[in-house]
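Lesson 9: reading folded outputs for more than one chain in a single document. The general rule is that every protein is listed as its sequence immediately followed by its C-alpha cells, and records are never interleaved. Here is the first one.
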Amino acid sequence: MVLRIGIPRAMLAYYYLPLWETFFGRLGAEVIISPPTNKKIVDVGAKNCVDEACLPVKVFLGHVQYLQDKSDILFIPRVVSIEPRKYTCPKLLGLPDMVKSNIRDLPPVWSDVINLSRHRRDLYPVILAVGKRITGNPLLIMWAYLLAVIKQRRFEKLLSYGYTVEEAYRVLQENSTTKVPCSTADLNIAVVGHAYNIYDSYISMRIISRLREMGVRVITPEMVDSKAINNSTKQLSKDLFWTYCKRILGAAYYFMQQERVDGIINIVAFGCGPDALVGEMLERKVRQTTNLPFMLLTIDEHTGEAGVMTRLEAFIDMIRWRERKNAGNLSTHGNLTSDA
C-alpha cells in the first residue's frame, strides 16, 4: 500500500512545496496537497484556532483539517532556523504543537526539527531520518533529495522572473512555459510581505492579479537576488534575527533605491508581532528617506474585499496622477529630472 503524505498548502509551502513534494514522490509516496485557500478552509481554521493567532496560522489549521481524513501522515516540520545565526518566527516554531492541540483525531504528524542555526549541513540528518521512514536505502534518499533541490531551484528561478507561486508551480507541474503578465506596464509596484500572505490569492484578495489588471507590473521580494537583499539590510542599525522578516526589509530597502519602482505596498497579518515591528520600521524608512508612495495593508479573516479594492484603486490612481503632474519635473523619488 502506497503511503499518503499530506502537505498543507499554507505557510512555508509557499516557499518549499516543490522541494518536499518531489522528495516524497521520488521515494514512492503519494503526496496529497490541500487545494488553494478558500472561504471554507479559512472558516474551519478560524473555528479550530485561538482568536489571538494570526490569519496565516488559522489558514494553516484549515488546510490541515482538509487533509485530516485524506492522508496517512501529515508532514508539518518544526522549522526553527533555515540559515546560520538566524531564526524563524515563534508561530513556525510552535506550529506542530498548535495543530496537535487544536485538531482532534489527526493521523500521525511528522514534526521533525529543522534547525540550521549552527550550519546548513545540519539538514542532511533530518532528510535521512524522514526518508528512512519510507525506505531503508540511504542512496535512494539522497538521490531523491538531489532531484528535489533541482526542482526547488527551478521553482525559485521562475519566481525571480516574475511568476507568482501558483503560476510557477503550475509551470513545473505541466513542464510548460507561461508568459508573465504586464511585463510592459506603465507602473512598477513593489509588493512586500511573507510569501504566504502575498501569493495566497484568497488571503491577499488576488492583489497581484488585480494590480496586473490595472496595468501594473508587480515586483516581489522573490524577484530580488539574495545578495542584493543582504547588502540592503546593512543599513539596519542592528541585525534582525528573524530570517523572513529580514528578507522583507532587505527587499523593501532595495526597492527604495531603484528608480524603476513607483510605489510600495506592504501586506501584513493582523496579530503578527514580527510583522507589526517590521511594518513600522519599513514605513518610517520610506517616509524619512524617500518620496515613494507607500501603503500598509493589514489583513485578517474579516478583511473586506471591497474596502481593499477601493484603497488599491485610489493608491494606483494617486501614483498615476502624480506621475502626470510631475512629468518632466520630478521623479517618483522626488529628484529633479529637468530644469523646469
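And here is the second record, again sequence then C-alpha cells.
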Amino acid sequence: MQANSDYNDEIDLKELFSIFWRGKYFIMLLTTIALILGSIYLRTLTPKYGVSVLLAPVQEEQSSTNFGSLGNLASMAGISLPSSSASDFSKYELMLFTREIATIIFKEENIVKKIFSEEWDEKKQIYQKPKRTQIGLVKSYLKKILTGKLSKKYTKPNPARLAEFISKNINISYDKKKQYLSLSADSTNPELLTNLLISMISNTDQLFKEKFINQADDAVKFYQTKISNSRSQEHREILATLIAKEERKLLLASRDGPFVAEILTGPNRTLDPTSPIASLILALSILLGGMLSVGILLVRNSILRSHNS
C-alpha cells in the first residue's frame, strides 16, 4: 500500500514537471510581462530620502544630585528642590509633538504651504479641498458601502492637522542610557522635512526658555525670602545652592543658543533613497508573474483532464 502511494506521488511529480516544461515559454512570457509592469510601476514612484537629527541635553545631567539629609530638612522647611535637567529633557521630548508647538510652527507659511501643497491654490491664495482622483472616488464609494460611513468633511489646514502630520510622519526614539534623542523621517521632499525638524527643535527650545524666564524670578524671590527668614545654617546652605542653580539656568536661558537640547549631529540626509526598494519590487514582480503563470497552467490542465474524462 505504501509502495503504491509512493508510486502515485512519483507520477504526480512527473506530471507536474511535464506540465511546467510544456508551458515553459508561457511562464517566461508572463514573468517577463510582470517584470516589465513592475519596472513601469517603479518609475512612477517618487523616491523618498531619510532625514535624521540627534539631540543631546545642553546641561550635564544631574539626575543623581543628592542633598543627603538636607533634603529632608528642606522638605520640612517647605523648600521646593528643583528637578534635574533630565526632567527638562524628558519634557522637551513630549513637547515636540504637542499642538502648542504645532501652533507656533503653523505661523511659518512657507513650511505649511509645502506640507499641504495639494490643497494650496497659488492663484487664489487660499486652501481648498483637493480634487479627487478616480481611485480616490472608488475608495470613498467602497468605504461608504462597507462601513456605512461618509467621508470626513474637509477641514482647512490648521495647527491640529499639522500636529497630526508631525506625529504620523516623524519618528522619535530616546536612549535613556546615553541621554540621546533621535528624530527621523522619510520624505519625497527632504529639504522640507529638514526645515520642519529644525523648526520643531528651535521652537520647542525657545518655548522652554520663555517659560523658565517667566518663572525664574518668582523662584529666586521665594528662595531669598526663605533665606532671610531662616535661622538654620543648613537651611541657608540649601537655599544658597538653589539660588545659585536657578541663576545659572537663568543665565543660560538669557543667552543666544539652545537651552534644553542641542543638535549633536544633523540634520543628515541619506545618500540613497530609503524607498522604494527597487530590488524588492522587481523580485516580487518576478515571483508574482511566475506564480500566476504556474497557476494558470495548472487550472488549464485540470480543465482539460475533466473534459477528457
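What the second record shows: Residues 66 and 81 are 10 Å apart (CA to CA).
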